[in-house]
Each structure stands twice: as structure tokens, then as C-alpha cells.
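Dear support,

I submitted the protein below through the web form. The confirmation email said the job was done, but the results page showed an empty box. After a refresh the structure appeared. I'm attaching both so you can tell me whether what I see now is the final result or a partial one.
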Amino acid sequence: MDKKVITTNNAPAAVGPYSQAIEANGMLFLSGMLPIDPTTGYLVPGGIKEQTAQVFMNIKAVLSAAGTNINNIVKTTVFLEDMSHFGAMNDVYAAQFSGAFPARSAFAVKTLPKNALVEIEVIAMK
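What the results page shows now:
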């Protein structure tokens, strides 16, 4: 199996022992992206809409570093600090895609790293 680490300074650095993304046999597996501004290293100010928008900026940066884009996402997993954020997150999420949406799961979790409101992981095709 051919496995390659994908990394970019245009998305936040990993906050633990993992890679931003791994490319394997034409598939990209992005780690959960947090709403961290890569220039400051801090969560973006605002609520769930601002945080979801930043997560997608980070996802797009990693996909770009891998030579692909958001149109090649096939699956997302959304982790929310509280399901009450689902509607607002969904509004921002829907605006990111044109055409067919990727498959998706969404969960409420007890706590996210850095006390973020949202984290999204992605599987994409190269």
C-alpha cells in the first residue's frame, strides 16, 4: 500500500500525535478538523456558524495540499458539542457543496478538543 502524509501550514497543526491527512491508494483520510485559525493557533471567535466556516476553510486547505478539492469528498463525520447546534451547522455545511452531498454522520459528544463547538473529519477521493 502506498501511504503519504499530507500537511499544510494553511490549516492548523495537529494538536496530538496524528497527521492532518493521509493519502492511501487514491483516497484521502482527513483527521478531525477543528475551528482553529492557522495564523493564530486559537479557536475563531463567534458561535457555531463561524466555527463551522473555519472548519471548512481548514478542510479545503488540506484538500488543496493533497491536490484535490471539496467536490471529491465522499464521507464526512460531524462532531457537535451539542445537538442544539445542528441546524446552524447544517446551514453552513450545506453552503459548502454544489451538486451531490457526501454521505454524512453527525453526533453530539461530551467535549471536543479545545472546547470547540464542532469538529469534522473527511474522507475524499484523490
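Response: this is the final, complete result; the empty box was a page-load delay. The longest helix spans residues 48-65.
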